[in-house]
Amino acid sequence: MSWLSEQEAKQKRQTDIGPPSYKEMLPPVIAKNYGKWKYHEVLTPGHMVHVAESGDKVYTVRVAGPRLLSTASIRELMDIADKYCDGYIRWTTRNNIEFMTTKEENVALIKKAADEIGFPSGGIGSGISNMVHTQGWIHCHSACTDASGLVKAIMDELFPYFNEKHLPAKTRLALACCVNMCGAVHCSDIAVVAIHRKVPEIDHDHVKNMCEIPTTVSSCPTRAISPDPAKKSIKINPDKCMYCGNCFTVCPPINIHNPEQDGVAIVVGGKVGSLRKGPMFSKLAIPYIKNNPPRWPEVVEAVKNIVDTYAKDARKNERVGEWIDRIGWESFFKKTGIPFTFQHIDDFTFARDTFRTSAAFKW
Amino acid sequence: MSWLSEQEAKQKRQTDIGPPSYKEMLPPVIAKNYGKWKYHEVLTPGHMVHVAESGDKVYTVRVAGPRLLSTASIRELMDIADKYCDGYIRWTTRNNIEFMTTKEENVALIKKAADEIGFPSGGIGSGISNMVHTQGWIHCHSACTDASGLVKAIMDELFPYFNEKHLPAKTRLALACCVNMCGAVHCSDIAVVAIHRKVPEIDHDHVKNMCEIPTTVSSCPTRAISPDPAKKSIKINPDKCMYCGNCFTVCPPINIHNPEQDGVAIVVGGKVGSLRKGPMFSKLAIPYIKNNPPRWPEVVEAVKNIVDTYAKDARKNERVGEWIDRIGWESFFKKTGIPFTFQHIDDFTFARDTFRTSAAFKW
Amino acid sequence: MKKYETPLLDELEKGPWPSFVKEMKRAAAKNEMANDELGQVEKSYKDKRGYWKHGGIVGVLGYGGGVIGRYSSIPEEFPGVAHFHTFRINQPSGMYYKTERLREIMDLWDKYGSGLTNMHGSTGDMIMLGCRTEALEPLFAETSSRGWDLGGSGSALRTPACCLGKSRCEWANIDTMDLCNELTQAYQDYLHRPAWPYKFKFKIAGCAVDCVASIARADCSVIGTWKGKIAVDQSAVANYAKGGMNIQAEIVDMCPTGCMSYNGSELTIDDENCSRCMHCISKMTKALRPTGERGATILIGAKAPIVVGSLLSWVVVPFIKMEPPYTEFKELVEKMWEWWDDNAKPRERIGELIEMKGMRPFLEAIGVEPQAQQVYEPRKDPFFFWKEEDLNK
Amino acid sequence: MKKYETPLLDELEKGPWPSFVKEMKRAAAKNEMANDELGQVEKSYKDKRGYWKHGGIVGVLGYGGGVIGRYSSIPEEFPGVAHFHTFRINQPSGMYYKTERLREIMDLWDKYGSGLTNMHGSTGDMIMLGCRTEALEPLFAETSSRGWDLGGSGSALRTPACCLGKSRCEWANIDTMDLCNELTQAYQDYLHRPAWPYKFKFKIAGCAVDCVASIARADCSVIGTWKGKIAVDQSAVANYAKGGMNIQAEIVDMCPTGCMSYNGSELTIDDENCSRCMHCISKMTKALRPTGERGATILIGAKAPIVVGSLLSWVVVPFIKMEPPYTEFKELVEKMWEWWDDNAKPRERIGELIEMKGMRPFLEAIGVEPQAQQVYEPRKDPFFFWKEEDLNK
Ligand code: SRM
Ligand code: SRM
Ligand code: SRM
Ligand code: SRM
Ligand code: SF4
Ligand code: SF4
Ligand code: SF4
Ligand code: SF4
Ligand code: SF4
Ligand code: SF4
Ligand code: SF4
Ligand code: SF4
Q1: Which of B79, B275, B315 to mutate to test the interface with C (most CBs of C within 10 A)?
Q2: Does position D68 have pLDDT exceeding 90, yes or no?
Q3: Ligand 5 near A140 CB (within 6 A)
Q4: The pLDDT of residue A349
Q5: Which of D370, D379, D386 sits opposite B197 (nearest CB)?
Q6: C378 touches chain A (CB under 8 A)
Q7: How far apart are CA B269 and CA B336, in angstroms?
Q8: What is the pLDDT of residues C362-387, one digit of tens each?
Q9: What is the pTM of this model?
Q10: Fewer Cβ neighbours under 10 Å: the N or C end of chain A?
Q11: Phi and psi dihedrals of D344, rounded to 5?
C-alpha cells in the first residue's frame, strides 16, 4: 500500500473524465424501472415503498447520516448493503443513507443492522430529516461556531421527530457556521446561522508585512475598511462593519474571532419547494445566542420551543413558514414568547418591503 | 365690488387663523348625532341612509363632481342645498358632492334638481365613483397629458357603473398627469399616469443665460445630467434618463414635451384600505398609449376592457388587485389580452422582489 | 372679449358625466382670464402639449406658501393667463360647508379671480384656479377677514385632511374632524412658513377602511382602531342571510385571518386572531360592532414615486390614545419633526430619511420601542448591527 | 500517537443521533492526521474558536480547482493538521454507489488521507477531509485511474447536482440524473479550470417539489414540469378518503389557485387554472398524475446572502424541452455564460449581474422573449425606459 511515485502518478493520471456514470451505480430494480414508477407509500418514518408500473416494488430504508463519516463506518454501511441490497447504497440530498431492497423482509433486518452500528432509521414523511450543515471548527477558517456539534445536540433532542413522531409537515432544519451560508440555510423551516457581533481587531504591527492593503480594503463588502496611512495599516468604520469576516480571510492580523461574543442566530419559516406557497426565505427569529459548547443547551432549547409551538399550532400539511404567514409574525413572537428587538427590524436592501403598511394586525 | 386698496388690505388681513371650525359647518342632524351613528344602508348608487342611535336618520344624495367647477355652478348646487338641506352641502374625499337631508321625500327632488343642472347622482356602494385626478393642461407646467379631458371621456364610458350597475367591489380610478403623481394614483384599482418617452432636448444657446448649471445638474433624480463645459451647457446621459421632467422645471431651455411621444401608462390592482388584503400598489398593465385628444379613445377602450374583464371574472367583494392576486398576473394578461413587454419587467429599486422565484405558475 | 373656437373641447361637452368644459365656458362667459384659459387649453388639445411656465415665487406678505405661481408660456397669445396663480384656501375639516359661508368665497373669487375652482385639490384645499399677482394681497385680506385662511405649499406642513369620521360614519374610532382641525390650528406657523427639508402631510381616517387614502399619501397617517371584541348581533346576521348574503363565501371565506366561522345560524369570531381589517364589519354593519378601548395606529412615510418608487406609510405606533387635547400625539409628532429636520437633506421626505437611516434611529429618537406590529416580517439576512448596549444585555 | 483527552467532545458521543465524534475517534485510532484533528477540535470547543488559517492555493497539475487548501494556525501543537486539505471528488449523479466502486475510494483515502469524509458536501461532492499537499498528486492519479474525477471549486463551474428523479420517483418530468451527468461531462473544462468571474452552480430537480433545493442554491436551477391535465383516478381518491384523509381541508383548501373542488365523492380540477405546484399530487400520489408534454422551467440566479442578501432563482424560461442531447438547453446556457463572462465584475454571480443590469439586457443576450411567467407581478413605478426600436412599434 505504498504511495505512487511521482513517475507512476504521471503515468496513471487521467483528466477531465468526470465522475463514473450513474448507470453503473443503479440497483437492478432501479435500472429496470427507471422512469416507470407509479406511486409510493411511506410505511414508517424509516422506510417506504415505491411501486413501478411493472408491479415491481422497491423498499427504501433511510438511516441517519452524521455526514462526517469515517471510512471505517462507510465500510460497515457497505457491508449491510452487500448483505441485503445486492451491493448498492445511496446518499440523499440531505446526507442520509438509503438502502434499497426488493424484499420486504429485509427491511427490518437492514434497520436492525444499521441501528447496531449506530445509524438509526427515520427521516421519511412529515417529520424532521437530517440537518443540512457545513464545516464549522472541523475544517473552516471562517467558522464562528461548530457545525457538527450543534447538529448532534439538536438532533439528539429532536430525535423522536426523526424516527417516530409526526409534525404537520416536513420540517427542514439547517445550520451554517458563518454568513457565507454554505448550507444555503436561508430557505429552511428552522436554521441556525453563526454570527460575529464585534468589529474585528487589528494587529497594526503585522498588517504592513502580512497584508496587501488594497486587497484588504476591497475585501470588505460594505466598504467599511479604508487605508490608515499613518499606521501603514487599515482602519475599520464600526458603523459600517457587519462582522462578516471577509477581511480576516485575506489579512490574518485582522482577528474577527471573539469567543465571548461569537454565537448564533435562529431564522425560521423558509422553504424551497413550490408546493402551495412558493419558495420563501427564512426570517430572523432570535438574533443571538452565545456559543456554549459542547452541547449548546440554549440553542437546543430555543429550537425545541419553536418546533413544539409549531407542532401544536399548525394545520396539517402546513410548513413552518406557511403557518407563520397564516397567523402573522406578531402572533409567532407572542406564541413562542420570543422577544422582538431592533435587530429584527430590517435595515438592509429590502427593509422597505418588510415594514407593515397596513392598519390590520393582531395585538 | 371694487378691489380692496393696499391700505384697506393691510388693515383687514389676519394671519394664522386657520380654516373656520367644522362645527359651524355641520347640518343640525349631523351635529346632533355626531359620534352616535349606528348603521347605514346603501339604497341606490345615488343615495344612502345613516341611522343614529337616537333613531334619527339622514339621507345622503351623492352627485358627480367634475372637480373643476365654476363659481356659477357651485352657486346653483348651493341653491339646491338651501332648498332641501337647510343650507348645508359637502364634498367627498373623491370630489363628489353630497346633499344630506332628514326627509326621505327630498331624495328624489334633490336628485332631479342636481340632474337638471348637469350633476347626476351615483358613486355609492360597489361601483365606480369619481376619478381622482390632477391639473393637466389646465394648470400645470409639468403635465404630459390633460387630466380633466381624459377623466371626462373615461367616466362617460363607465357612467353606468357610477349610477346604476354594480361591480364585484368598489373600483377606484385615478389619473395623474405626470410622474409626480399628485393624485397619489399609485394605489388605485385602475389608474392612468402620464409619461414621457424621450430624453429632453436642450437648447444649448439659452442654457447659459437662463439656467443655473449646478441647480440643473442636481435637479435630476437619476444623476443623468452633467455639465458640458465646452458648450457652457449641460448634457444628459440617455441611458439614465427616465423622462421625469424635473430638469425642465428648473431650466426652461430644456424641453421635455414631445407631442408625438408623450402619452399615458395604465396601472392596475392598487388599493388603500386594510380590508382583507393590506394596501397595495398599482402595477403596470399597459406601458404606453399615445395622447389622442379630445377623447383618447384608445385609453377609454383599454380601461373599459380591464373593467369588463374584472366585472366578469372577479368574486363578490374582491377588489381588482385581490382578483389579480388570486388568478395570477399571467392570467390577468391572458384574460385581458394585454401584451407583456420588457417595460413590464421591473428594473428599479425593488425589481428583485418581483421576479418569480417559484416553479408554480399558469401557462 | 375674444371668442375662441373650441372644436376639440366641444367634444367634451357631450356625454353624461359633468363637463369641465361647460364649467370653463360658464366662467369664460363673464371672465377674461377664464376665457383665455379656454383658448389656451384648446390650443393644448390641438398641439398635444401644455403651455405653462414653471411658477416663480409669489405669495402673500408674511406667508411662504399657499399660492402656486403659474404663468403662460405664450402670454402674447393668451394675455388673460399671463398670470394664472392658484390660491389655496384651507378647507374646513370634513369638507362640510354652510352655504352662507361658502358663498363668501364664491363672491370673492368672482371679484378677484377667474371664477374657476377645484373642489377640492388632492391634498384637500379648496383650489382657486387662476388669479393675477396683484390680486393676491387684497384677496387674502378679504378672505382672512372673513375667517378663512390659506392652505400649505412648499417645504411646509401641508393642509391636513381627514375622512368625515364621527360626523356621519358608525365606524369612526376617533374624532377625525376634530383632530384634523386641532392639528391645523396648532401648527399654523409650520403650515404657512416653509422651514423644513420638504413637505409634510397629515391624513386622518377613523378606521382601517381609510376613506381619505392616508396610507398612500400622508407622511403621517393616523388611523382609528380599537382594542376589544367585535360584538355580534345574531339576529341581524340572520337578516343578512335572509336578504340573500352568502355569509360563508362573502364574509367568512374572505376574512384574512380565518378567525370567523358560521354554522348556518350563528356567526362566531375568534377575536384574539382578528386583525381588525374591517372587512366583515363593513359588509355587515348592522350585525357587527367593535367594542372596547379606542385609539389610533400611527403610520409614517407615504409619498409619491419620485425618486425611489412610491412609499406607503409604515406602522410606527400600533396604538395610541387619541383624545383632546391630543398632547401625547403632538409631542410624538414634534419629536419626529425635530429628528427629520436635523437629519434630512433638502427635499427628503421623512419616509425617505427613515429608509436611509434605518428604522432604529428613528424609533429611538421618538422614544418608541421595537414591536412586531411594526413589520410584516423580520429581516431575512444575517447582517445586523449591535450597539455596545445591546451586547451587554 | 499522542492520546488527547477530549472531555468536551465526549459529551457529543451521548444521545441517539449518530455521533461525528465517534467517527473522528474511529479514524483517529489509526490515523495521525485524524488524531490531531480530534485534538485541535477539542481545543476549539474549549476556547470557543476555530484554529484554521485560510488556505493557500494547492491543487493538482493542470486543474485549477477541486482541492481546498487548509492549514492549522497552531501546527506546532497539532502537526498532523499542519496540512489538512479537502479533496473534492465528483459524486455520480443521484449519489447511488455500487459498493465495489465506493470501496475503491475508501481504500485510497485510508492510504493517502485522514480517513475522514463528508458524504456529501453541500454542493454535492464527496468530500475527502484532510490530506497533505504531497499526497494530492498520487491520490489524484490513483482516483482518476480508477475512473473518478475531482469536483469544482473556485471561480468555475461547480459540481452539478440533482434529485434522484426518474430513478425512483414517480413525479420526475425530466431525467435529472442523465442531464446532470451530461452537463458534468460536457463542461469538464469549465469545471476544472476556473476562468469565470465567480462560481456557477447547476442543480436539477425533476419537479416543483425541488428535492435538491435548486431554487435556493443554484445559479441555474432546472425544474421539471408538464403541460397538460392532471389525471384523476376517482377510486383512488375514494380510498384516500376512506383512509382518513380530509380531502377538503388537506387538499382542496390548500390548493393555492383554488382550482380544485370536491363534492364528497368526486375530485375535480380546473386544469387551466392549476399552477402545477405539486401539492395535491404529492399528497395523493395514487390518485393524481400529470399528463401531457414534459419539459423544464429554467430559473437563474440563486446564491447565498453575501453581500446584498440571498437570491432565489428567477424564472427565465418557463418551458423548454429537455431531452438528450439537450442541445437547446446547452446553447442557452452557453449564451448566458458568455454574457456573464463579458459583463461581470470579479466575484459577481450571474444573479447579481442581472440585478445590476436589469432583466432586459440579459433576456436579449440569450434571445428569450419577455413573458408574464417570468415575474410575480409587473413593476409598480412609472419609470421605465424605451429603446428607439420600442418607440416605433
Ligand atoms: C431522497 C430525496 C431526494 C434525493 O435525491 O435524495 C427525496 C425524496 C422524496 N421526496 Fe423530497 N426528497 C429529498 C429532499 C427534499 C428536499 C430538499 C431539502 O430538504 O434540502 C425538499 C425541499 C424542502 C423544502 O421545500 O424546503 C423536499 C421536499 C419534498 C416534499 C414537499 C414537502 C412540502 O410539503 O413542502 C415532498 C412531498 C411530500 O412530502 O408530500 C417530497 C417527497 C419526496 C418523495 C416522496 C418523492 C417520491 O415520490 O419518491 C421522496 C421520499 C419522501 C420522503 O423522504 O419523505 N419531498 N425533499 C431527498 C431526501 C432528503 C432526506 O434525506 O431527507
Ligand atoms: C364619503 C367618503 C368619506 C369622506 O370623508 O368623504 C366615504 C364614505 C363611506 N365609505 Fe369609503 N368613503 C370615501 C372614500 C373612500 C376611499 C378613499 C378613496 O377612494 O380615495 C376608500 C379607499 C379605497 C381603497 O381601498 O382603495 C374607501 C373605501 C371604502 C370601503 C372599502 C371598500 C373595499 O372593500 O375595499 C368601504 C366599505 C365597503 O364599501 O364595504 C367604505 C365605506 C364607506 C361608508 C359606507 C362608511 C359609512 O359607514 O358611512 C361611506 C359611504 C359608502 C360609499 O360611498 O359607498 N369605503 N372610501 C368618501 C367618498 C368618496 C366618493 O366620493 O366616492
Ligand atoms: C394641486 C395639486 C393637484 C390637484 O390637482 O389636486 C398638486 C399640484 C402640484 N403638485 Fe402635487 N399637488 C397636489 C397634491 C399632491 C399629492 C396628493 C396629496 O397631497 O394627497 C401628492 C402625492 C403625495 C405626496 O405628497 O407624495 C403630490 C405630489 C407631488 C410631488 C411629488 C412629491 C414627492 O415627494 O414625490 C411634486 C413634486 C415636487 O414636490 O416638486 C408635486 C408638485 C406639484 C406642483 C407644485 C408642480 C410643480 O412642481 O410646480 C403642482 C402644481 C400644479 C398647479 O400648477 O396647480 N406634487 N401632490 C394637489 C394639491 C392641492 C391641494 O392643496 O389640495
Ligand atoms: C464544503 C462546503 C460546505 C460543506 O460543508 O458542505 C463549502 C465550504 C466552503 N465554502 Fe461554500 N461550501 C459548500 C457549499 C456551498 C453552498 C451550497 C451549495 O453549493 O449548494 C453555498 C451556497 C450557495 C451559493 O453558492 O451561493 C456556498 C456558499 C459559499 C460562499 C458564498 C458565495 C456567495 O456568492 O455568496 C463562499 C464565500 C466565497 O465564495 O468566497 C463560500 C466559501 C466556502 C469556503 C471555500 C470558505 C473560504 O472562503 O475559504 C469553504 C471551505 C470550507 C472548508 O475548509 O472545507 N461558500 N457554499 C460545500 C461544498 C462541498 C461540495 O463541493 O459539495
Ligand atoms: S458556512 Fe462559512 S464557516 Fe461554514 S463552511 Fe461555509 S464558509 Fe466555512
Ligand atoms: S468583518 Fe466584514 S464588514 Fe467588517 S470590516 Fe471586515 S470585511 Fe468589512
Ligand atoms: S401630477 Fe404632475 S402634471 Fe399633474 S398636477 Fe401634479 S405635478 Fe402637475
Ligand atoms: S427628465 Fe428627469 S431623469 Fe431625465 S434628465 Fe431630466 S431630470 Fe433627469
Ligand atoms: S375611514 Fe372609516 S371612519 Fe372614516 S369614513 Fe371611512 S369607514 Fe368611516
Ligand atoms: S375584522 Fe377582518 S380579520 Fe377581523 S373578523 Fe372581520 S374579516 Fe376577520
Ligand atoms: S424533485 Fe420531484 S422528481 Fe425529484 S425526487 Fe423530488 S419529488 Fe421526485
Ligand atoms: S398542483 Fe397545486 S395548483 Fe394544481 S390542482 Fe394541485 S394543489 Fe392546485
Answers
A1: B275
A2: yes
A3: yes
A4: 82
A5: D386
A6: yes
A7: 14
A8: 999 999 999 999 999 999 999 999 99
A9: 0.97
A10: N
A11: -80, 150
